[in-house]
C-alpha cells in the first residue's frame, strides 16, 4: 500500500475505531461505507466540524478550535463580505464565461495588477490541480518538450498529469521524463556553496539528465515556498533555479496555490518575495475562500500560440459565482491590508515560537514567511535526527488543546502552520500558548516512552 507524506503524516488510523466515542465511531463507519478508500481523516481523534466563524472552527459539542492550518478560508471562515458577494451573485446570475460579463473582466484586471508586467493574461479553472494541469499543457506546447523537473516532496494536484509530478502523493516512482530534486534545505545544508547555488546546480543536473534520456526540457515546476517539502523560503533560491531552467529552454511554473494571495506578506506572491519572475503562475485554494475557483496567469507571448492552436473552455472556471467570490477575497485582502497583517502578525507568532524553542530542544528549526511556518522537529538536536514520532504526538496534543495544525516534509517531522490572514495579535498569542501547552504534553509522552 502506497503512503503519502502529505496525506498520511497526520492520518486517522481506521484500526483505531474502537477508541472513538460511539457517535464518532458510527459516523466514521458510515463514511468508510460510502466514500472511496483513498480518503483520509486528520488526527487520531477526528474533529467533527459543524461550524466555522472567523479564525475558529467548532465541533458538534460546541468546542472551539483555533484554526492555524486551513489555507482555503484564508480571509476567515464565513467571511461576511464573501458570503454577501456569493449570495448576491447567485440571486442575479450564475452562468459560464462564454457569455459576455463584466465581472470576470473587472476581476481579471485587478488580479493582474498584483503581478509583474510580463504576466498579463489569466485563464480560469476550478482547482489548483486543473491550473497546474493547464500550465503543463502550455509549457509542453510552447517548448515542444516533455521533460519536467520538480522537488522531491512536491505536491501539485490530483489529475493524472499532476499526480505524476507530485512525489509526495505516494503513487509510486516517477516516469522517465520527470526528475525530482531536493529542495533548498537551509537547515540541513552543508558545504561552502550557498543553499541557492546548490539548488540551482541540482536543477541544472536534472535537466542535463533529462536531455541524456532523450527528453527535451519543458518546465521547472516549483511551489514557490516549497510547502510540502518542509517550507523553505530561502533568499535567492528561486532566482537561481529559474535561471538554471531557462538555460535549457524550459519554462518556469510557479505554483502559488499554497503561498499565494498575501500568505507570505506584502510581496503577495511567493515568487515575488524572492524577486523572481516565472513564465506561468498557478493559483487555487485561498482564491475564493471556500468557493472552488482557481487560475493560471501567464505571459501573453507564451500563451498566445497555445490559444491559437488549442481552444479552451472550462464550464465552471471563470463563471459568475466563483468570480464574485474571488473578487470579494481580493477586496478583503486589499482594503483591510491583510498583506501587512500577514507580516505583522507573522512576526508575533515567530517571536513566540523562538521563545518556545529556547525551552524545547525538539524544535530544531523555524522557517517562515509572513503567515506561513515550517517548524522542524528533531529527536536529537545534535544529530538532527527527524522527530517524526514527537511531531505526531505534538499535532494530536495541539488538537486536544484546541489548536489545528498539521505536518509536512519527507519524514512528517515539520509542523505546517498557516494562520489565517485575518489573525489578530490575540489569536497569535493564543496560537503560541496552545502550541506551548501541547509541547509540554508531547515532551512528557516522550520522556515516559524513554523511561
UniProtKB/TrEMBL annotation:
The keyword Transcription does not apply. Keywords: Aminotransferase, Pyridoxal phosphate, Transferase. It comes from the Bacteria. InterPro entries: Aminotrans_3, Aminotrans_3_PPA_site, PyrdxlP-dep_Trfase, PyrdxlP-dep_Trfase_major, PyrdxlP-dep_Trfase_small. SUPFAM superfamilies: PLP-dependent transferases (SSF53383). GO terms for molecular function: transaminase activity. Belongs to the class-III pyridoxal-phosphate-dependent aminotransferase family. This is Aminotransferase class III-fold pyridoxal phosphate-dependent enzyme. It comes from Gordonia westfalica.
